[in-house]
Amino acid sequence: MISNSGHDEHGRYSGGAAGDQTGGEWARINWYSRPWNVVLRHPDPAVGGLIAQLAGEAADNDRIGYDQKERGMFWIRLKQAGFFPSAIRILCEADCSAGAAAIVKAAGYILGDGRLQGVSPDAYTGNLKSVLNGAGFSALTDSKYLTSDQYLLPGDVLLYEGHHTAINLDRGSKTTMAYSVEAHIAATAAFAKTAKAGKYIHGDSHSIPPCADHITACDRGAVARPLWDLGFTDQPRGGITVLNMEDWLVAHGWKKLSPNNGLRRGDIVLMKQNGTSKPTADWHTFLVTDVTVSGSVTLINKYDFGSTERIQAGAYFVGTPVNQWANRSVYCIFRWGKSGTDENQPYTFAPKDVKAGSTGASQYLATEILKAYDIKASNKNGKPQDLELNDRWTNGDMCAMTQWKLDRLRQNGVNLAKGPYGAGEIGPRDWESLLSSGLPFRALPVPDKQKQGPSVLLAQRILRANGYKGEDGKPIALDAVFGSNTAYAIRQWQKACKRTPTGAMTYSDWKLILKDI
Questions:
Q1: Over the stretch 154-198, which tens digit does the pLDDT of each residue have?
Q2: Quick check: 121 pLDDT over 70?
Q3: How far apart are CA 125 and CA 122, in angstroms?
Q4: Residues 6+ apart with CB under 8 A from 396
Q5: In 10 A of CB 303, how many CB atoms?
Q6: Termini Cα distance of the chain
Q7: Which helix (H) or strand (E) covers residue 139, if one does?
């Protein structure tokens, strides 16, 4: 979806009444090809997340309409409202470029970013690119950013220079995540500033993204919203909570540690209410930023969104005891980092480029995926023949990969053969197509952590390519849904590998079946 300010209630560019008379003057709409000739992206995902939130608020507030001749009024009312469009109560007007520029400028005031504050609210589509470049935005002109929303991030500014602009609201299906402890802390710091400036209150958020309804809590503020801004968007509605945090974090790459492991920067601490053994709404969490140990005393700096007073004070606390409450104690610590011995962890891998004559596990996987779809090679006489499963990328494999790329072109208009990789070769874009996912690929435990999705589909492809069938005696369907036939095929593969036939794929199963890519 995009936030789009395009015309007044009469379908014209000026002359209408103040405010959004139809609900469509400034609205959330599906992405469309204007066409766009550049996408402008801020390097900080938390900034992008805030820009997207503000753009969504503007689209939802019918006190904001469209009129090019009154375009400056939006910034005036936005400033008066404390920089959040949802707080505007007086009818006003904007247009596409004045609206986008004002929202970026407002994000600067909320976050205390001088470069964003310097964006002129009078910018127009003819100079918006240079204005945002000067504020730290990068210009993206590759066709993948301009021809669909699959590679777009929240807060990306779409621009057709001299004509129109809009702001992207959602994360595209082919974007990737790059988590780090420092990114998590930075995103939490940005959200703390946002919550303070917006006078957010303590409570249960039910919005998408989390806290866009100006409500937050210990779990949403320190975990759900910053992780959402970093790309972890597969959260329950309203975000990660103390009730579901343990399963969700472990499934997404965090290690669960006992309190005896000590604390580090970036740890997520889960506190239990004394007298309870299972999570309740009274449990508590916070994000550690620094740890100081002096003898037997451990003091921490932390982000803690545990009350309205804390939220509106900035949610950052320095030199506090780990446990400052008599009725709570540390239940566990969550620390980022995949463990190769924890079967509940996802197996994350990034396949290598594949070129003619190259060998390795990546080549084997590519052949398995192509074979699962019964894509054929050609023999010397030009007749089709089955692909052979091995780790060498042969002429036959290149022929099959060329056919895959042609099929994608026919089906969705994506020309994978265009670029630095030949028609029969495989680069990052080709792997994203083959795996139906961005890179690196996170093979989640099946079905424990995923019953439907790309991890299930990858297991089905590999098993089918290797001749394993379902309990009905037929090749298993490539439907990405875990069912009895998929479980049966997994058990048969596990028996052949002399493993316990559980019918489920865990970390070590993935590592084995993917040949330790």
A1: 999 999 999 999 999 999 988 887 788 889 999 999 999 999 999
A2: yes
A3: 10
A4: 377, 378, 379, 385, 387, 388
A5: 24
A6: 35
A7: strand 138-140
Task: Give me 502's structure tokens.
Answer: 């559980």
Per-residue pLDDT tens over the stretch 433-446: 899 887 788 898 89
Cβ atoms of residues 204 and 217 within 8 Å: yes
Cα gap 250→267, rounded to integer Å: 13
Pinpoint the alpha helices (H) of 268-420.
308-312, 361-372, 395-412
Determine phi and psi for 74, rounding to 5 degrees: -60, -45
Alpha-carbon distances of 351 from 84, 270, 358, 360, rounded to whole Å: 43, 35, 13, 10
Q: What is this structure's pTM?
A: 0.66
pLDDT bracket for residue 295 (50, 70, 90): low
Please compute, for residue 206, the number of CA atoms within 13 A of its CA located in the half-sphere on the CB side: 0
Strands 215-216 and 26-29: unpaired
As given in the structure block, the two tokens for residue 237 are: 């509605």
Closest of 68, 131, 138, 137 to residue 98, by C-alpha: 68
Alpha carbon 327 to its chain centroid, in Å, reads 36
Q: What is the pLDDT of residue 293?
A: 74
Helix (H) or strand (E) holding 28: strand 26-29
DSSP labels, 102-157:
HHHHHHHHHHT-HHHHTS-TT--TTTHHHHHHHTTPEEE-SHHHHS-STT--TT-E
Residues in the chain, how many?
Answer: 517
Cβ partners under 8 Å of residue 260, min gap 6: none
CA distances for 47 relative to 28, 148, 172, 304, angstroms: 20, 22, 17, 21
C-alpha closest to that of 191 among 376, 92, 48, 402: 48
3-state secondary structure string across 145-186: HHCCCCCCCCCCEEEECCCEEEEECCCCCCCCCCCCHHHHHH
Reported as a single tens digit per residue, the pLDDT across 486-505 is: 999 999 999 999 888 889 99
Q: Whole-angstrom Cα distance, residue 360 to residue 452?
A: 29
| 3-state SS string for 177-201 | CCCCHHHHHHHHHHHHHHHHHCCCE
Judge whether 70 and 92 are in contact, CB under 8 Å.
Answer: yes
Whether residue 233 has pLDDT greater than 70: yes
**CB under 8 Å to 48, separation ≥6 — which residues?**
41, 42, 153, 154, 155, 156, 229
Coil, strand or helix at 475: strand
Nearest Cα neighbor of 168 from 12, 8, 19, 34 is 34
Beta strands in 181-253 (DSSP E): 201-202, 215-216
C-alpha distances (whole Å) from 101 to each of 86, 129, 339, 390 are 17, 11, 44, 55
Dihedral angle over CA of 73, 55, 153, 478, nearest 10: -140
Peptide bond into 420 cis (omega under 30): no
Biggest CA-to-CA distance, the chain: 81
| DSSP SS3 for 15 | coil
Judge whether 290 and 303 are in contact, CB under 8 Å.
Answer: no
In DSSP terms, 377 is beta-bridged to: 385
